[in-house]
């Protein structure tokens, strides 16, 4: 299962959020061998950016682990609104 999490951040808070997410993802890589990705839309609207975390091939219980890590990292202080978590699975080819 791949997890895609998107949210908004103010331009002024982007560097702080990036550092916190990078540290969290480094911990996931060391602890769970999950290599997270961090992306953002190229444009900024009204000084607000849209960011996305991607966790490919995450185990089934990873969403709960991620939620706990986000809280411990204090990401909410830099995020505008909610974090939206979506899960996608591979489509099995038809025979």
Model description:
InterPro entries: DUF4936. This is DUF4936 domain-containing protein. The structure is a single chain. This protein is an alpha+beta fold and 95 residues long. The protein has a single domain, classed as Alpha-Beta Plaits, CATH 3.30.70.100. It has two helices and four strands; from the N terminus they run βαββαβ. A hairpin with a 7-residue loop joins strand 2 and strand 3. The two termini are 22 Å apart. The mean pLDDT is 94.
CATH class: Alpha Beta
Distance between the termini: 22 Å
As a percent range, the share of helical residues equals 25-40%
Q: How would you sum up the major sheet?
A: 4 strands, antiparallel
Spell out the helices and strands N to C.
EHEEHE
**Overall structural domain count:** 1
What's the gyration radius in Å? 14 Å
Give me the number of helical elements. 2
**Structural class by secondary-structure content:** alpha+beta
**DSSP strand (E) fraction?**
25-35%
What form results from the Cα inertia axes? globular
Mean pLDDT reading: 94
Q: What is CATH's topology name?
A: Alpha-Beta Plaits
CATH A-level architecture: 2-Layer Sandwich
- Spatial strand sequence of the major β-sheet: 2-3-1-4
Give me the count of strands.
4
Oligomeric form:
single chain
Low-pLDDT segments: none
């Amino acid at each position: 299962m791949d997890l895609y999490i998107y949210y908004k951040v103010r331009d002024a808070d982007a560097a702080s959020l990036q550092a916190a997410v990078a540290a969290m993802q480094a911990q996931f890589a060391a602890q769970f061998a999950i290599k997270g990705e961090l992306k953002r839309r190229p444009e900024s609207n009204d000084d607000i950016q849209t960011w996305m975390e991607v966790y490919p091939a995450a185990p089934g219980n990873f969403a709960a682990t991620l939620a706990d890590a986000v809280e411990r990292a204090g990401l909410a202080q830099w995020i505008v609104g909610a974090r939206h978590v979506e899960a996608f699975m591979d489509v099995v080819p038809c025979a």
